[in-house]
Structures are given as structure tokens and as C-alpha cells.
Design goal:
The protein is α/β, with parallel strands linked by helices and 319 residues long. It is 39% helix and 16% strand. It is built from eleven helices and twelve strands. Strands 1, 2, 3, 4, 5, 6, 7, 8, 9 and 12 form a ten-stranded parallel β-sheet that branches. The chain has a two-stranded antiparallel sheet with strand order 10-11. Strand 6, helix 8 and strand 7 form a beta-alpha-beta unit. Helix 1 crosses helix 8 and helix 2 packs across helix 9.
Length: 319
Amino acid sequence: MPLSPSEIRAIHDLPVPELLYRAATAHRAHWNAEEIQFCTLDSIKTGACPEDCAYCPQSARYQTALKVEPLKDVEKVLAGATEAKANGSTRYCMGAAWREVKDDANFDAVLDMVRGVSGMGMEVCVTLGMLNEDQARRLKGAGCQVYNHNIDSSRDFYETIIHTRKFDERLETIQAVRAAGLEVCSGGIVGMGETIDQRIHFLQELTELEPAPESIPINQFVAVDGTPLADVDPLPPLELVRMIATARILFPKSRIRLSAGRTQMSDELQALCFFAGANSIFTGEKLLTTPNPGGNHDHWLLNALGMRVEGAAVKLSAS
């Protein structure tokens, strides 16, 4: 039975030493705490999205510095996946700024991308907006293993930042993905101005998904000029750590992904998040449209921590 919001809040509010101890214990029961999975996220179609998500520079409704780009050629995507694999990534995620999947030539091209990346022996994840069960089955047939569809935040806070889609539509897409036999990657964003109780309700919504998402990205909000949330105050670092640790305790068998916002985090904060149970990062120079530390620094950081890249053929450089 899922925990109540008050029970989750009690975990979240534990003294930090106890919270981290419990999270680290849960983590070690199911994962190798010395390994971090590297993933690469490729924006295969950028900008001009009709949605009005207040945090997103890809919305066509906001005046940002983002350059709109059409769907990438299949060959260019596969070249990016080849480079990502060489740099240690074992999962390749492809994201298109669409409201929903349409059965057209663009979707056929995405299926070709999925076939190509799957043929390299990498885990394949896509995030394309809303889709139906038949479309999800076509993705699975092409070799896709995971579909990402974040719930973003709590139900009540969601309604204040997105008006072009309902929260329940997010859940319907996740249900279609499950019915097609794909794994689910679903998490959210912290630091958009929500209250701690709203973060707790976000986690509680995830506990009601059955089965639990195999992958839960926790994104730290990155403010972008021109979006409605451009002036939101930065998230205090320990609040991020509390969210990572609480998520690890609630979902001991799921991957907890330290996702967007890592350029705003110190190496020490990232290390604390790893100790709290995060065991995957997105590496590379960009995370869709926002800056990312880059593979060289990620390799350096893991080497400095005496950790290693999970399942990768490359070795960490000591320099």
C-alpha cells in the first residue's frame, strides 16, 4: 500500500544523517553504490512546441534564445549515439518537442533511429509527448526499451504551470506505455517555486504507479530567460539531497537519475546525491537545450570519487 503524504513527509524531514543512512542502506541492498550509469539525451527535434509549460524554453509561446530545429536526420542521430557509446553511455535517450506522436513520416524516422541505436547494443529511451498503445507497441517492436514521460510535479502545482494538458493525460500516456510492455521513466522537476508539501505529493503520485517506474529522473529546475519562471529563486542544495534520498527510500529498486541542473551543482553536492542513492546521470555537453557538465568532467569526477561508469567499455582517466 502506498504511503500517505504525511508518512513520506516524515521520511523527507528526518535529520540529514539518518535520512542519508537509510537511503544509502536501501541503495546498497539493490545496487552497486560504486557505479553510475551514464546516459546521453539527444534533442532530435528542438523548439516550436505548442505546449505552454512555464519552465520550458522549447515552448513556441515564449521569446527565448533557443534556436528551433527540425527533426534530425537519422544518420546524424546514429552518429551521436556512436560517440555517446564510445564515451561510456549505455543508454541513449531521444527527445522530440512534440505535444503528441503522429503517425507520419517523422514517426517513421524515429522508428529508424530506434532500430539503429538498438542495433548498437545500447538501451533505447524516447520521449515524444503523448502517444497511444499502438504507437508504443511500434516503438517496442523497433527495439525501444523505455519511454520517458515525466509527471513533472504534484497534481495541484502542475495545474499552475501547464494549461495545455491535464495531469491525468500524463498518467494515460504512462498507462499506454505499460500496456505495450515498455519500461517507464517518469520523474519531475524540483525548484520551480513549489512548496515542500507539493514535492511530497509529487513523490506520492509516483508511488501510486503500479508497478513503480524503473527510472525516476529528479531534475533541478534551470531558469531560462524569456520563460515565465525565469526569476524563480535557486533551490537550496540540501533540499535537492532530501528529494534524492527520499526517492531512493521510496523506490529502492528504481534508478534514481540526477538529471537537469548539474552545472549549477558543486562536485561535492553531486557526490552527496550519489551517496543519497542517485545512480545515473545524463552526460554530454547538453541536456536537450540546457547546459550540462560534459563527459570529460563527469569522468574526472567519478575518478576523483573512486567510482566507475556502469557497464562501460571505457576506462576513467586519472588526469
